[in-house]
Amino acid sequence: MEAQKPALVNVTKTLRDEQLLKDLLSRRDDTLPLNARRLRMTTRGSLTLHLSRSGAMENAGIALHPVYGFVYLPGSGIKGLVRAWAETVWAAGQSDKKEAWRKIEEAFGWSPHSENHKFPKKGLPGWRPSEIEPQPGAATGRLVFHDTWPVRWPRLVLDVINNHHGKYYAGDDDPGDWEQPNLVYFLAIGGGEEFEFAISGRGPDDDGLLDLACGWLKGALTTEGAGAKTVAGYGRFKPVEDEVFTTFLPDFAKAGFASASFDLKLVTPAFLAGASQQKDDCDLRPATLRGLLRWWWRTMHAAHLDRDKLKRLETAVWGDAQSGSPVQIAVDYVNGGPPEQYNLPKPLRGQKVTQGLFYASYGMAEKTRRWFRPPGSLWRLTLTARIGRANGLSLEPQQLLEQAKAALWLLTQFGGAGSRSRKGFGSFQDIEVQGIGSIADCIEIAARFRGSCGLGGADRSTDAPVLEDALIVKQATAWKDPWCALDQTGMALQLFAKGRAGSDRLALGLPRSVGRQHLKAGNIKRHASPVLWSLTSGQDGDLLVRLVAFPAARLPEKAKSKKILQDLLDFASQELKRQAPQSPRSSGQGSRGPFGIGRIATKSQQIDFPHPQPGGPSTGERVDAELLEKKTRKGGWKARHIDSGLVGPIQDNQNVPKDAEPAQRVKLTVVSVSAKGMDFKWAEPPPQKNRSARNKRHGSGRGGRR
Fold first, then answer.
1. What pLDDT score does 247 carry?
2. Order of strands, edge to edge, in the sheet holding 665-673?
3. Which residues, in sequence order, are CB contacts of 608 under 8 Å at separation 6+?
């Protein structure tokens, strides 16, 4: 699919003929029936359709008008969408079911045996009540659904889906973080594109059926969406006018739905992106959020089901390529600053002055400067669940919604969205979910759900991340600036990595290089970090740092991974606790001591954060240090200055006692200090003798030797 990307990019660059469309719309106005009802709706996000055509290269993989080439929605698809919504949502919420189904049949027509698959049978839930039998004979519906045309020529964009667990879905492996992602590109149109829908009647509209159908259409477009990937949030519309549709929407509880909405607010900047990784697609995509929810959902169940049962249960909740999902998500941007480009100041490049932030955001400003959403950006997430099935049993909407809410709680507590989210970027503010306040609650909810599906049983060993194995550390701080906090957490992670032997760094994820050597774990060249950093803000604005680590069976094996990750959490906890009481000043003035104030420029503001600076200990000063396990290339000792965290070699290794051990606290003499590190000596340098004393010892003076 990667080979199709250049061709699809070329399609997005094709010219749009606005004048042609204007003329066509004028002619269309003249041909539509006089009694046609017209509705103008705007896309709330991405829309794509006809992805199931024989190939993505046929008709560009999206519904383009066969004559004129603009994106349109065929009337047949609109009719099917509206009918499905009227039968499964609207009718289910009506008190007089028989009258409701008669209206649907009059609107859309009926034929012999065309309704049989809608009745419950063989334990499968239907949506048509069994007591309402189809009318005899056949009849054409009274309504005509016309093709939906755009008001302005829509701009095609390149979109992408990213499957990280291909072998798991094929049944060949556990759902871990070591697979190479499979990128599949397709065409879509973005949010803000306006379309005109039209419905007309075959005869006089004496009973208001046209108006009712318009209500069905509005309800379907706003809650279900049109086109492909609607369960992932694609294809949803909103009215052009600020119109309230409460008169058209049913009681969702009576219709067999469960729904909940949450505000997702960024605490730290988020490197969000779609296929182009540009400003236009720097947004929280529903597909991205859905993938994250699936990942956290699997951590609740992976240790309790074999691979096949886990995959079947996941399909029952989240769907797969062959079957839809009873859980839908919709994401709407609410407010916040516009996307900004990540601009690291050039004078600091290569000097590692802000090494913590550089380390945490590696790759975001190296080749191309990525776009990010600033802290405070807010989205509204709506989760909607309908009746589902698993293991031959019916699943209630509230059960399914509870599963999604538990996964969302875990995501906002311990995860994030976007690139570098495992280093703390893209963290969300904590959300309140009724009945969920701890990991233990999520574990209990998961166990109860498996029991209701008849999937209890013995636990099993798995290489996938498991919630019960999670190692967790939390540290409150006095920091209010997220950039400052990201710099500090990045520094702690970097100091720990530098203090470990090369083979131990496997436990922190791949790819990873030590010197010129590229590390591998068996045949695995890629493995996402098993450590996730996240930040949230308290009521007073102070930031709380959380670390959760999942021992990884393939980095290089679970017992060793657990030990190294526990060492990391202990080390990070000490480092953060040591720096947490410090509240960085908001001015650009340097501060005394080993930590100063640096600045990073963004479009909207100057952001201050602390970073190691020379000017702490001076040359010749005796300092407290810790011996590191990692040695120099020649096998010499390395040490870390306790106060600043700067690392460097001990130059006179011959003076280091033979019984010295890693992690031992010692007194060392500073030989040199810079922003990059320190050099140490074990013994104090010999005292400098003044010149007059030296001359006196050699018997020389102003008059020379006597």
1. 47
2. 647-649, 638-641, 622-627, 665-673, 678-681
3. 481, 483, 484, 584, 585, 586, 587, 588, 597, 598, 599
Beta bridge partners of 679: 672
Using N-to-C axis directions, what is the helix angle for 439-452 and 286-301, rounded to 10°? 80
Based on the fold, state whether residues 152 and 245 are members of the same structural domain.
Answer: yes
Q: Which residue has the higher pLDDT, 654 or 610?
A: 654
d(CA 636, CA 628): 10
Distance CA 142, CA 205 (A): 9
Rounded CA gap, 495 and 502, in Å?
Answer: 13
- Quote the CA–CA distance of 232 and 383 in Å, as a whole number: 11
Residues 8 and 130 in one domain: yes
* Same domain membership, residue 446 and residue 510: no
Supply the mean pLDDT for the chain: 85
**Is the whole-model pTM more than 0.85?**
no
Range of the domain at 192: 1-249
Report strand pairing: 340-341 vs 237-239: unpaired
Contact 415, 528 (CB under 8 A): no
Non-local CB neighbours of 177 within 8 Å, separated by 6+ positions: 164, 465, 527, 528, 530, 552
Q: What CATH number is associated with residue 685?
A: 2.40.50.140
- Give residue 540's Cα distance to chain centre: 27
Extract the tokens encoding 249. Answer: 């929407």
Residues 587-597 as b or e (16 or more Cβ within 10 Å = b): eeeeeeebbbb
User: Sign of the CA dihedral 147, 150, 151, 152?
Assistant: negative
In a domain, 223, yes or no: yes
- 3-class secondary structure, 284: coil
Rounded distance between C-alpha atoms, residue 341 and residue 419, angstroms? 14
Encode pLDDT of 348-358 as tens digits.
444 434 578 88
- Token look-up 């589902």 returns 388
Give, in degrees to the nearest 5, the angle at Cα 355 between 353 and 358.
115
Kindly state the percentage of the chain with pLDDT values over 90.
Answer: 55
* 604 and 461 share one domain: no
Same domain, 563 and 653: no
Q: What is the DSSP string of 508-573?
A: G-BS-EETTEEP-BTTB--B--SEEEEEEE-TTS-EEEEEEE---TTSS-HHHHHHHHHHHHHHHH
406 and 390 together in one domain? yes
**Which residues are paired to 544 by β-bridges?**
476, 536
Nearest CA to 484 out of 617, 585, 407 is that of 585
CA 379 from chain center: how many Å?
13
Structure tokens at 59: 């008709």
Of 146-150, 522-526, 648-652, minimum mean pLDDT range: 522-526
Number of C-alpha atoms within 13 angstroms, CB side, residue 130? 5
Tokens for 202? Answer: 């075959």
Residue 573 CA to residue 578 CA, distance in Å, equals: 8
CB 358 within 8 A of CB 487: no
d(CA 485, CA 459): 39
Distance CA(516)–CA(320), nearest Å, equals 42
User: Looking at the DSSP assignment, which residues form a beta bridge with residue 596?
Assistant: 611
Distances in Å between the Cα of 237 and the Cα atoms of 34, 143, 466 are 25, 22, 38
What tens digit of pLDDT does each residue of 296-340 get? Answer: 999 999 999 999 999 999 999 999 878 889 999 999 999 998 999
Spatial strand order in the sheet of 471-476: 471-476, 543-549, 531-537
Same domain, 239 and 295: no
**pLDDT the model gives residue 645:** 77
